[in-house]
Structures are given as structure tokens and as C-alpha cells.
Design brief:
five-stranded antiparallel sheet; mainly beta; 349 residues
Length: 349
């Protein structure tokens, strides 16, 4: 055996013995997965998905220029029942005419509220890029029979906690009796209602807290929350978290790893969390695969953005490695059985 091959074999053996291989604990309810490639945009990532008649509408994110990774665009494309593209991608204009800054739109979530379709996303219109400049935007999506476009987006700037100098993103949209609500945070489970009056205002609807044992980083939003999947009429959503660590998948290097899980919350105020995944949802191929030159810093990413369901299955659309779009098929009943209860209580003002 050549020296280089021997070194590689020894190194692989040491990694296997010392570091976690997440896919060794892949759950049996993750049945299969498929990569979705956007024509002309092979590195599109972080999808959201909804039903669109007999087809599916997929939103996605693109970094148009690797040397200018601060720019970011959102697009949409139609898929058939096999999740294959059947239309040309269309990009959504998130900027007013004659805007001075390029699009920095990130990670859009599609959500039907009644018969209106909305896109909820993060963006930064300030000339100077800063974490504090990123805010959540809401825009109704219009379809004229051939093209999708955004009506005037509204930036949410007035809400509980808005004075913090942080990057606002990953708020979870859901439809409550024809009203658009947003989960601002999971711990506590803090719910806003955007007034959509042109002033960027949100009112606090409810806040609850429950004991959660999750050892994979801070819980953050992921997909829109939908009714009709979970028992007791609860909403179901998929969240994400991240943790700096070393693994087989990072070749023993200490990098940020992203994970996803599922949770449910009650269908009526105060919308308390009722159950959650006790550990990350992992399928074969989630972490093993192509590694790309990072836009920002080295990561190992699985990032949920939207899901579909029927009587037997759930299909979760996720981004991988900030460069790929995938959809995984889950056994619905086994997924729900994997969740553990959460006993939440209201937080008094």
C-alpha cells in the first residue's frame, strides 16, 4: 500500500473512532430524499414549498456573485408531482425602483393565509451592512397567470424587543383563522401579529415557556407552521439550530453544524408548544456529500424551509451546505410518534 493511502486509511479510522457520524443514527421515518436543481442556478439553496393547484411552487435563494456574497436574491419555480421543475425560474423584485442598495433578501417562506399568498423573508436595505440592519419583511405574492411578483413589501420595525441590535430572520408564519401570525422565538414561544398597516407594527399576541431538552444549539424558526398534520388539531413546524463542533462530516474540524427538528403547538391562543423532537431529524445523505467553498465560513448545513403532507407522508424541503436544494420524504405517523411532550405555561406580563 502506498504511503499516502496508508495515511488516509489511518486518518479515516481515527476520525471514525473519535468523532460523531450523524448518519449512523438516521431515523427510519426518513424514507428517501431527492435533490432539486434549478435550471441555470445549480447552487440555489434554502427552499420553501407550497401546493399550487396540481403542482408545487418552490421558493429558493441564490447568491448571484460569489465575490459579492452580501447580495442575495429570491426566486420561484413550479414543480410537478415528482418535484421536477416544469417552468423557468422567476426572480422576485424586493426593491423599490431606483433603490440604492442591491437585494439582500434571504430565506423566504411561502404561506397561504386564506386565499392570499405571502412571502416572509429577511432583508437589509441599509447602504452599510450590519446585523442590526436586517429585518423581517412581508409581501403579498401576486400571480397574473404567467408571472409571480411581490406587492409592496412591508418591513417590520416596531415590535417587542426590536431595539436589540441583532439580525432578524427565521420568524415562523402561520394562518390563524385567516390572520397572518408570526412566531418570533421558540424559547419563549413568542407570537406576533403584524398589523400590515404600512408602519411596520406588530402586536404581541402570546408568550409561553416550557422545559425543553435540546443539546444542539439555540432553537430557531424553520418552516411555516401548518394545521392538519399533528394530532389534537395542533400546528406542526420544523425548526433549526446550530452548534460549533467537530464531526466525521467536518473531518474533525471545529465548524458550525446545523440541525433540524419538528415541534407542535396548540391551535388556539396562547399557542403553547406541545411537543418537540428529542434529537435532530437525520436521513442518509443529509451530511455526507459534496463540500463547497463557503460563502462566509465553513459549515455543515441542513436547513428546513417548507413542507407538504398527505395522509401518510410529510415532504420536507431543505437546503444543504448553502449550495443545494433537497426534499425528504418522511413517514408521517412515525415522525409524530418520535416527538416528546412539552408542558408549557404562559409568561405573565
Amino acid at each position: 500500500m502506498k504511503i499516502a493511502g496508508l495515511i488516509l486509511l489511518i486518518t479515516s479510522s481515527l476520525l471514525t473512532d473519535e468523532y460523531l457520524d450523524f448518519e449512523e443514527s438516521a431515523q427510519d421515518f426518513v424514507l428517501e430524499s431527492k435533490r432539486i436543481e434549478i435550471p441555470g442556478y445549480p447552487t440555489a439553496f434554502n427552499p420553501s414549498i407550497i401546493r399550487w393547484g396540481k403542482e408545487f411552487l418552490l421558493a429558493f435563494r441564490v447568491i448571484p456573485n460569489r465575490t459579492q456574497s452580501f447580495t442575495s436574491q429570491l426566486g420561484v419555480i413550479l414543480l410537478d408531482e415528482t418535484f421536477s421543475p416544469i417552468s423557468q425560474p422567476q426572480f422576485l423584485n424586493t426593491r423599490e425602483p431606483n433603490a440604492l442598495t442591491p437585494s439582500r433578501a434571504e430565506d423566504g417562506r411561502l404561506i397561504f393565509v386564506g386565499d392570499k399568498l405571502y412571502l416572509v423573508y429577511s432583508d437589509n436595505s441599509e447602504p452599510k451592512i450590519s446585523k442590526g440592519g436586517f429585518r423581517v419583511y412581508i409581501a403579498e405574492v401576486d400571480f397574473d397567470g404567467g408571472n409571480f411578483k411581490l406587492k409592496t413589501p412591508e418591513c417590520l420595525t416596531r415590535y417587542e424587543g426590536e431595539s436589540r441590535n441583532i439580525r432578524e430572520k427565521n420568524w415562523v408564519p402561520f394562518d390563524y383563522n385567516g390572520n397572518l401570525l408570526l412566531t418570533y422565538s421558540l424559547i419563549p414561544h413568542l407570537i406576533f401579529r403584524p398589523l400590515l398597516n404600512g408602519n411596520g407594527e406588530c402586536e404581541t399576541v402570546a408568550s409561553t415557556m416550557g422545559p425543553i431538552n435540546w443539546n444542539w444549539g439555540i432553537l430557531r424558526g424553520g418552516t411555516s407552521a401548518l394545521l392538519g398534520v399533528a394530532p389534537n388539531g395542533d400546528y406542526l413546524s420544523f425548526f433549526h439550530s446550530s452548534k460549533m463542533m467537530a464531526s466525521i462530516h467536518s473531518e474533525g474540524k471545529n465548524v458550525l453544524h446545523y440541525f433540524m427538528g419538528a415541534y407542535t403547538f396548540s391551535p388556539q391562543p396562547p399557542f403553547e408548544m406541545t411537543s418537540i423532537s428529542p434529537k435532530p431529524i437525520i436521513g442518509k445523505g443529509f451530511y455526507k456529500g459534496d463540500i463547497y467553498k463557503p460563502y462566509w465560513h465553513p459549515v455543515r448545513v441542513v436547513f428546513p424551509g417548507g413542507y407538504l403532507f398527505d395522509e401518510r407522508f410529510v415532504w420536507i424541503a431543505y437546503g444543504r451546505q448553502d449550495h443545494e436544494i433537497w426534499i425528504a420524504k418522511l413517514d408521517r405517523q412515525k415522525l409524530l410518534e418520535s416527538l416528546v411532550p412539552v408542558n408549557s405555561t404562559p409568561i405573565l406580563p
